Amino acid sequence: STWGASSTYLLVAACLLSSIGKATMAVRNVLVTGCSSGIGLALAVRLARDELKRFRVFATMRNLEKSEALKEQAGPALDKMLEIKDLDVTSEDSIRRCVNSIPQRRVDVL
Predict the structure, then answer these.
(1) What span, in angstroms and rounded, lies between the C-alpha atoms of 7 and 65?
(2) What angle do CA 69, 97, 68 make, to 5 degrees?
(3) Which CATH superfamily is domain 26-105 in?
(4) N or C: which end of the chain has fewer CB within 10 A?
(5) Where is the signal peptide (predicted)?
């Protein structure tokens, strides 16, 4: 249901934003799946547009041709705090390629 999805998004965003203190200087690498629509898209945009710039978001999706909505909503955060990556979570090769493309292969939050 829409209410369930919205509630889940709000809960995840609230937990991430409150778990990392405002004084934290280190940028956290966050990998978000399913970013072509729905909760994945909303969460990736929210974290990338964080005013304190605490998150470097790797927004992933299976089909990069569906990335227009994400690009539009990310606005100026695109390429600064948000990078779009190809990832099919059902493919080990795709997972390996995606993780290897992340600086130092470091993912702090999945």
Answers:
(1) 28
(2) 10
(3) NAD(P)-binding Rossmann-like Domain (3.40.50.720)
(4) N
(5) 1-26
